[in-house]
Amino acid sequence: MAAVDADPFQKAIDHLEAERAILTNFTNFWKDLSSHISSLEQTLRQKSETLESKLQSLDSTTKEALESLATREESLPSKELAASERVERLKQAALAQIEEHSGALPKGADVATSLRFLCLKMDADGLWRFLIARRKELATIRAELEPAVADAVDPASLVLQALEDFVFRRADKVGLSDQRWACGMLLRALSADEGVAASVKERAMVLAEAWKEKIHGSGEGGLASNAAEVQMFLQLLVTYKLVEKFEMDYLKKFVVAFASRRDMPKLAVSLGFNEKMG
């Protein structure tokens, strides 16, 4: 009997083994691909959820901001009305005082009453002259001046008028130091938080520019060496919101030059010098 040729069978077996290897590789590849796709889907789902959460948060924040803005807009008329009523109330009080005393200081009035009367009357000239005349009563003046100035119809305008008298009408140097002291007291009595009308701020800017020229002018005998007046100039810029109109290096020179003055550190912070200066 003839022997069976095993070669065709071996070839068939080898072919099947090769096919199985290919199938196994394909199966593994498919598993890896499926796993990768699942991972991508999970990542995309997480990112989508995160984005949705952020969008909801943004919508909520935007809604709150719009509601807050609407509330502020609604409150503006009431604030304007309150401010208008305050001005009218102070105006009527001033007119009543003036009418009662025929435009003159109440006879025998004490310092507090006199200061309030002059402030209500918006009499800047009379006010700084009264301060000089009663300078010996400094303790009382310090206690009563700030509330009296606050009672004026326009405190910022009242104090500015006194400063304008001092800067623009200083040809006669007799009594200049007393007037400087009185104006310094008025400027310190005016709160830095006091509202300043646009027209008053414009006047203050004109005054600041003129004062700056006088500080550097030769005709004033070297005002730059007068620490008290330089400090008043800097206080004017802070109180009337004019600091940004001047170069910081220019202001820094004054702060450094007169750093030993008692109020200069606090004033330096108000000017924007928060860091230690060399």
TrEMBL record:
<protein>
    <recommendedName>
        <fullName>FRIGIDA-like protein</fullName>
    </recommendedName>
</protein>
<keyword id="KW-0221">Differentiation</keyword>
<keyword id="KW-0217">Developmental protein</keyword>
<dbReference type="Pfam" id="PF07899">
    <property type="entry name" value="Frigida"/>
</dbReference>
<dbReference type="InterPro" id="IPR012474">
    <property type="entry name" value="Frigida"/>
</dbReference>
<dbReference type="GO" id="GO:0030154">
    <property type="term" value="P:cell differentiation"/>
</dbReference>
<comment type="similarity">
    <text>Belongs to the Frigida family.</text>
</comment>
<keyword id="KW-0287">Flowering</keyword>
<dbReference type="GO" id="GO:0009908">
    <property type="term" value="P:flower development"/>
</dbReference>
